[in-house]
Amino acid sequence: MAKEQVLAKVEADLRRGHSHPAMQRLASLTAAYPDDLDLRTRRAALYRRVGNVVEAGRWGFLTEEATAEEIAAFEKAHPGAWRRLFVLKVNSDPTDKLGPMASARFGRLIEQTGKEGPAPVVWTEVGPRPQVSGTWIDDLSCLLTGVIAVIVIALAGFGLATLIRWAL
After folding, report:
1. CB 3.0 to 4.6 Å from 57: which of 70, 86, 87, 129, for a disulfide?
2. How many CB atoms lie within 10 A of CB 75?
3. d(CA 25, CA 31)
4. For the range 76-85, what are the long-range contacts, defined as Cβ-Cβ under 8 Å and sequence gap of 24 or more?
5. What is the pLDDT of residues 5-59, one digit of tens each?
6. pTM
7. What three-state secondary structure class fits 17?
8. Domain 3-130 class in CATH
9. Pairing of strands 127-130, 121-124
10. Rounded to 5 degrees, what are φ and ψ at 121?
11. Is the predicted pLDDT of residue 119 greater than 80, yes or no?
């Protein structure tokens, strides 16, 4: 179903006072179009309408309409900066599409994620992720883990074979 048709159904649901189906429809649209700021604005307004300030803050975080109360409730519900960034469900850096207040708010969030670690934010095809360092120490630790796993599996196999021979 086209986005415009779903939005028409959302409006019809809201005219009839049916908030829950409207929420579900908007949730499916924001999943399909995670970087659409208009959908986020609509979803935040709906949560604001039903009194859910945490979700209004979450979906309004990237909009100019979010209130300080909503943002505070969202930040309290998701205290870690990386957690907040992931629950925003954005696939690409929205900075160039944001208004001045939302841009400043999002910039502070990105800055906080860098301070919290494990690494600064890098934008990938699936959204924000910690920047991979790619040092030889990381490769060495993976290699050592693999060698240890192979040794443990081999010892378990020898032990099992010995137990079977002993039992027979």
Report:
1. 70
2. 18
3. 10
4. 80/116, 81/109, 81/112, 81/113, 81/115, 81/116, 82/113, 82/116, 82/130, 84/109, 85/109, 85/110, 85/113, 85/121, 85/128
5. 999 999 999 999 999 999 999 999 999 998 899 999 999 999 999 999 999 999 9
6. 0.72
7. coil
8. mainly alpha
9. antiparallel
10. -75, 135
11. no
Written as six digits, the tokens of 52 are 């859910």
Which amino acid is it at 131?
A: Q
> And the tokens for 134?
């790619």
Whether residue 47 contacts residue 70, with contact meaning beta carbons closer than 8 Å, is answered with: no
Which amino acid would we find at residue 75?
A: E
Give the single-character DSSP code of 97. Answer: G
Q: 162, 155, 90: which is closest to 127 by C-alpha?
A: 90
For residue 118, is the peptide bond before it cis, meaning its omega torsion is within 30 degrees of 0?
Answer: yes
One-letter amino acid at 49 equals R
The dihedral sign for the CA sequence 55, 58, 62, 68: positive
Cα 149 to Cα 135: distance, rounded to the nearest angstrom: 22
Q: Which amino acid is it at 23?
A: M
Give the position of tokens 């908030």: 19
